[in-house]
Amino acid sequence: MASKGSVLRIEKSSIYDGDGLRTVLFLKGCPLRCLWCSTPESQRVEPERGINRDKCTGCGKCAQSCARAAITMRGGRPEIDAAKCVGCLECVKICPSAAVAGYGFQMTADEAVREIAKDELFYFHSGGGVTISGGEPLMQSAFVREVFEGCAKRGIDCAMESSFHAPWSEIEPLLPLLSLLHVDIKHPNNARHKELTGIGNGLILENIRRADASKNNIGIVTRTPLIPGINDADEDIAELAEIVKGIKKLRFMEFLAYHKLGAETYKRLEKTYLLPDVKTPEAHHMRQKAQLFKKLSGVEVKVNGERV
């Protein structure tokens, strides 16, 4: 029987998540708590709901529909007890003003493969395939492996985007199924990485070394979100260059510009966005840091998908 996975969403025809046109399967659940996380709805494995207070009319139908009594009306506003909520999302279905949004759904590996296979023709002509992203795919490694195995049987190319913070036993069985691996290095310094994400980078860097030393024919792309005042100092770039330049299977390094696209989702999940005053870096700043990295490492660099 195919295992079930907790899926956040499925995006078609991506050109930024590997070679060619790709279907990207975003999964829920992540062990990191990055201060700048752009998809806070991906952090929990369980399906969850958010509320757009501007759309809410205070009708109370969500509270009436909740079998767990997780929603109560106070002052004409729904209040949700997260400890009681089981993620059934009945409140999403019944809301007449679409004020309640659902994040996540269950899907079997067979169902995922069938959905991915709908675009086989596009993969064939573009050299694309499927990329599993997150959240963190390795939190659902059994499901991921079944999806990759099903895709591989159909000749569909497989790639993965990961923080690589997981036991090696969860990673090693996936490597023979992959052509490309995107790995994030949020900050090169272990202590600073822990301050910013809740975990150190020791296991991540060790897993990169082990994947690089493996006999599997995979390409590795390392990526870092460039965040002003957080990880863009010249000394941070220099330390990152020292880490990355020793990776033999490396295709290129990519710098991604920090943005606040997830700020509205934080609001709907009633969470606090922790970097409200940090601005998106200017294009010239991104290129300057990328050029410094290239000079120090000798590694090819992309900025938001464009080669420097």
What does this structure look like?
This protein is α/β, with parallel strands linked by helices and 308 residues long. It contains eleven helices and 14 strands. Strands 7-1-2-8-9-10-11-12-13-14 form a ten-stranded mixed beta sheet. It has a two-stranded antiparallel sheet with strand order 3-6. Helix 3 (109-117) crosses helix 5 and helix 9 (234-244) packs across helix 11. The longest helix is centred in the C-terminal third of the chain and has 15 residues, at 283-297. The mean pLDDT is 95.
Please render the helix and strand layout as text:
Blueprint: E1 4-14, E2 22-27, E3 48-51, H1 61-65, E4 71-74, E5 77-80, H2 90-94, E6 100-103, E7 105-108, H3 109-117, H4 120-126, E8 129-133, H5 141-153, E9 157-162, H6 168-171, E10 180-184, H7 190-197, H8 202-213, E11 219-226, H9 234-244, E12 250-257, H10 263-268, H11 283-297, E13 301-303, E14 306-307
Helix pairs in contact: 3-5, 9-11
In brief:
It is built from 11 helices and 14 strands. The chain has 308 residues and is of the alpha/beta class.
The secondary-structure class comes to: alpha/beta
Major beta-sheet overview: 10 strands, mixed
Fraction of residues in β-strands: 15-25%
Shape: globular
| Unreliable segments of 5+ consecutive residues | none
Average the pLDDT over all residues and give the rounded result. Answer: 95
Radius of gyration: 21 Å
Q: What is the helix/strand order?
A: EEEHEEHEEHHEHEHEHHEHEHHEE
The side-by-side strand order for the widest beta sheet comes to: 7-1-2-8-9-10-11-12-13-14
Enumerate how many helices there are, as a single number: 11
